[in-house]
Amino acid sequence: METWAFIVDNFDLIIMRTIEHISLVGVAIGLAIITGIPIGIAITQSKKAADIVLYVAAIIMTIPSIALFGVMIPILSKIGHGIGYVPAVIAVLLYSQLPIIRNTYTAIYNVDPALREAARGMGMSALQRLRMVELPLAVPVIMAGIRSAVVMSIGIMAIAAYIGAGGLGTFISRGISQTDARQLITGAVAVSILAIVADFFLLWLQNRLTPTGLKRVWPHPDRRSET
């Protein structure tokens, strides 16, 4: 009951922190998509390059988030952004690269060669084949990677509150430092709900973006194996 009373009394603050959290994650994921998808497409041209890029991205994923924040503080402090918004976005951007690059690479690489040959036989250029054939077929798997990145990023961004980034993690950090279970539970529940809502929204978007022909073959694109 105390936690519920805290939520009611601080509802406006919770909404503000939620918007702040969504803004941070949105910027980071947007940058990750803009960089990750082109990288995933580019490395399909070279197995060696793919191995190197995926290996580096996997190494970044193994670094504890709080340690990565700590490493960036002295580096970014030289340009006046050692704590706060910038290091939080950069960290989440780095963590989001692996699922997006990996799924994009796998989806494009596994497009049926017969379809590529048919497109080539119709006189399509490499860019036209990518835009009209390969990317539409790759949408379900790419979106699955983005969904994984978003859900993971919402959790990681909560930790960024320890470097002054704001967001819902502020409730968690203050709950721990002040031994206040109300704030701790409020933050944890809010982050969980946000992750669930974001996942369902992206699932809906994934189904909307999936070509009709693929929907007939795979009624639930998200159940395809993510690699």
Structure description:
This protein has helices at 2-9, 11-42, 47-62, 65-76, 85-109, 113-121, 126-159, 169-177, 181-209, 212-217. α2 (11-42) packs antiparallel against α7, α7 (126-159) packs antiparallel against α9 and α8 (169-177) packs antiparallel against α9 (181-209). The longest helix has 34 residues, at 126-159. The N and C termini lie far apart (44 Å). The radius of gyration is 20 Å and the shape is elongated. It is mainly alpha-helical. The protein has 10 helices and no strands.
Q: Which key phrases capture this entry?
A:
227 residues, disordered C terminus, 10 helices
Largest sheet: none
Helix content: over 70%
Low-confidence stretches: 221-227
**What Rg, in angstroms, do the CA atoms define?**
20 Å
What series of H and E elements makes up the topology? HHHHHHHHHH
3D shape: elongated
In percent terms, what proportion of residues is strand? under 5%
Strand element count: 0
End-to-end CA span: 44 Å
Q: Which structural class do the helices and strands define?
A: mainly alpha
